[in-house]
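Because discrete structure vocabularies remain unfamiliar, we reproduce here a specimen of the format, pairing a chain with its fold in token form:
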Amino acid sequence: MAVETIQARSGDIFTTEDETLILNSINQWLDRDVRDKVLELEHADEYPHEMVEQMKALGLFGASISQAYGGLGLPSSTYAKIVTTISEVWMSLTGIFNSHLIMAAAVERFGTEEQKQRFLPRFATGELRGGLALTEPNCGTDLQAVRTRAVRDGDDYVINGTKTWISNGIEGGCVALLVKTDSEIQPRHKGMSLFLAEKGPGFSVGRKLEKLGYKGIDSAELIFDEYRIPADNLIGGEEGHGFHHTVGGLELGRINVAARGVGVANAALNDAVAYAQIRETMGKPIGQHQAIQTKLGDMATRCQAARLLVEDAAKAYDRGERCDMEAGMAKLFASEAAMENAAECMRIHGAYGYSKEYHVERYYRDAPLMCIGEGTNEMQRIIIARQMMERNPV
């Protein structure tokens, strides 16, 4: 197989051999330290502290941060394969570093050089971890409706408000915080700004939020009460660009969610194929019955189609192109593929699929998150349609 080069958005260069070595290392780690511990941690909804330290050592917290700031500088196409590989074993682990890397991407793409030098090396090692603080109790898909306010006071801003469903909100030490700095300006998005907010006085965790699936990773409510933050922590140094900074990061986030979908869909397919060859009815393995074969055929096709959509979106992102349509397509299809494959896997397993002794019921609980997170699938359809019309004017 010929060795090809792969270029990351940051300009860092890799080869296909480098990618293979990285993926092999990830697989070895999963087999050695993760696979046999998933069910215990999942059922206890316990944060995987030991695995987080191992992910630090593997460089995953700096996976997409450029080498100039201490990261691995991986192309998003390679990063997506890592996310898929880990999600096949335990999807929750990918959320611990993905939200963190979207925060880092906002700094690297839009921050001042001083902000990059101050934060990115600490992000890359995992010394300082965090995520995105966008969603509020009455604000999800419509980000322009955020109510958290930041008011300038000398060299600082004073922030008040509440965020919810924030990944890494408890165990992390920093968030990229979307706020309103001008509530009167029109259009509304011009009044939004994005800050790097480290935990301190006035920044508290309200509560841990319990979830159907996606166990292990902490999802929290965050409260900002007269929280004072230096003006130097305003990403880019200028008010009014927070919405643009956030939407730019969501392209990478949607590619990640799509890659998770591929991972869960693959895991469901692999378990279904294995079980179909050992479970017998009417004197033969159920995989020899046409009713099961049609399910497996559809499941395999969904996996391959989802993988190719993710690959296409990731390559567009690496080329520096606008790819909200491609990322939206990948996220929409891959998340629905995970949902359908998880349900079919459970049906093929019968009662065993409903048992907590097996991973099948976990796939069924994890999959719905991907249809909701990083923008609902209903919104993805609208984004895709609008982009199709914009790119193909009459």
The chain has eleven helices and eleven strands. The chain has three domains: 5-125, 130-243, 246-391. Residues 242-278 form the longest helix (37 residues).
